[in-house]
Amino acid sequence: MAARRNPTFICQNCGAVTNRWQGKCESCGEWNTIVEETSALDRPVSGRPSRKGRVFALEPLTGETPNAPRLSSGIAELDRVTGGGFVRGSVLLLGGDPGIGKSTLLIQASAALARSGHRSVYVSGEEAVAQVRLRAERLGLASAPVELASETSVEDIIATLSEGQVPKLIIIDSIQTMWTDTVESAPGTVTQVRSSAQALIRFAKRCGAAVILVGHVTKDGQIAGPRVVEHMVDAVLSFEGEGSHQFRILRALKNRFGPTDEIGVFEMTGIGLREVANPSELFLSERNLGAPGTAVFAGMEGTRPVLVEMQALVAPSSLGTPRRAVVGWDPSRLSMLIAVLDAHCGVRLGQHDVYLNVAGGLRINEPAADLAAAAALVSSLAESPLPSEAVYFGEISLSGALRPVSHRPSRLREAGKLGFSAAFAPESARADPDSGGTVRVNVVSALHDLVATIAAASARNPKRSAPRNDLRKPGQEG
Ligand code: TYD
Ligand code: MG
After folding, report:
1. Sign of CA dihedral 65, 76, 211, 213
2. Torsional sign, CA 179, 182, 186, 191
3. pLDDT, tens digit (0-9, with 9 covering 90-100), for 106-127
4. Motif RadA KNRFG motif: where (predicted)?
5. Boundaries of every domain in the chain
6. Contact at 8 Å (CB) between 258 and 235?
């Protein structure tokens, strides 16, 4: 049977397939990403006659469901994100910027597993064995019985790992360096990455090992090459951090066997990654007490409360269209807040540049951060610091009313634990008896109440000479 060779053109950014070359990918809009590849789909399965399908038994919905067999990594913050450890026979993709610490995290995890008696194999396609050894020495892990290899051929790796005792953990650093004979494209192309991942996933399912693939991230934050690999694996973790900070945050973007809202927090030190068990302490460690424009948000990351400082800067703009810049929060929520402040609270920011930043490199997705962001904005505009012993949380609706948020007791307890004595929060839907004890809750039912409180404090502030007329109490506008 002769192979019918249709040239296939594949976008190296999004994996879209076209039948002719184009300068611009119509699917993702990127330029010069389309490359001709021989698709595995066009090739006949060599030498194998077509066979009749095997008959298999169908199962009822009811039945024994054993928990996914987990392999604890010995790193609590990593286990938290995976949902309790690596699942045997599953494949996990770890993405992150170059130099963020992916290899460091994984050599630490494989060393911990190897030390507890599980066979762990670390295959590096990027570094020589000596380089990996050097890193392990620096981390004080040189004595751990991890088995190393510097290899890029998927067939050779699978053949080697099929011999002897099945490894419990296999690390492939990185999937972009791997190649397989079954396709002709160059390593790093979508087809190669996809086929290599496919082969490794099949191997993981067959032998029951937990396989971790490291994936490079492109400049716009996506795991390079195919999004398809993300769809093929069981879990996708992303390792993030701000360049200037030592903090690293591990987050699950997808997880077939666990939650996706937990984060793991690490600190990069001279001897590897250190777990940060209490992230609030870390995020508040550089607090600028008494400065206007900062509010502490009592947030939740998964099941864990995390306090973090939200910083705002509001300044008269010299531009026709004022600037709005946000780091660590959703820009469209900032636009909404600015509109609500304008429409319901008489706070006009139309002529002001507005900058909002979440301290410590954390990224907040919760709507509960609305109240803290609003407090920081108004405080900056009024040049009046907020009370340093208070935390803020609550979702703001378009009408300016506050909506209750979940996990109120945990937020208040965490605030109390860190020495805060007051909280500005919406009325709770239910009476909560154990709401922290030491933290007094000032109920905010509408955003203009909070604006009025800040305006009143600002009027009492002796440091200010002339009252700023951009901040008027509600009802005074006209
Ligand atoms: P690495 O794990 O190689 O990153 P990735 O695999 O994600 O590319 O980490 C590289 C960076 O981490 C490098 O800039 C040096 C720094 N580092 C430390 O600060 N301390 C350490 O103990 C190690 C091993 C690395
Ligand atoms: Mg690396």
Report:
1. positive
2. negative
3. 999 999 999 999 999 999 999 9
4. 254-258
5. 1-41, 70-276, 282-460
6. yes
Query: What's the average model confidence in pLDDT over 71-85?
Result: 92
CA pair distance 412, 408, nearest whole angstrom? 6
The atom number, within ligand 1, closest to the CA of 272 reads 22
Task: State how far the Cα of 323 lies from the Cα of 336, in Å rounded to an integer.
Answer: 15
Tell me if 250 CB under 6 Å of ligand 1. Answer: no
The reported pLDDT for the residue numbered 285 is: 80
* Interatomic CA distance for residues 470 and 349, integer angstroms: 8
Three-state SS for 422?
strand
User: In 3-state terms, what secondary structure has residue 302?
Assistant: coil
What whole-number percentage of the chain has pLDDT above 90? 55
* Cis geometry, peptide bond prior to residue 174 (ω within 30 degrees of 0): yes
Q: Give the C-alpha separation, 68 to 64, whole Å.
A: 12
pLDDT band at 476 (very low <50, low <70, confident <90, very high): very low
The finding on whether 140 has its CB within 6 A of some atom of ligand 1 is no
10, 34 contact by CB (below 8 A): yes
- Residue 372 DSSP class: H
Please state the atom number of ligand 1 nearest to the C-alpha of residue 104.
2
| pLDDT of 430 above 80 | no
Task: Check if 70-276 and 282-460 are the same fold.
Answer: no
Q: Which of 104, 242, 273 to mutate to test the pocket of ligand 1 (most atoms within 8 A of CB)?
A: 104
* Residue range 361-367: mean pLDDT, rounded: 87
The answer to whether the CB of 345 is under 6 A from ligand 1 is no
Q: How far apart are CA 183 and CA 30, in angstroms?
A: 25
Say yes or no: domain 70-276 is CATH 2.40.30.110: no
Q: Would you say 374 and 447 are in contact if contact means Cβ atoms under 8 Å apart? A: yes
Contact call for residues 196 and 189 (beta carbons, < 8 A): no
Check if 100 has its Cβ closer than 6 Å to any atom of ligand 1. Answer: yes
Ligand number nearest to the C-alpha of 177 = 2
d(CA 33, CA 38): 16
CA-only gyration radius of the chain, Å: 27
CA of 98 to the centre of ligand 2 (A): 7
Domain at 282-460: CATH code: 3.30.230.10
Indicate if the alpha-carbon torsion angle 42, 46, 51, 56 is positive or negative.
negative
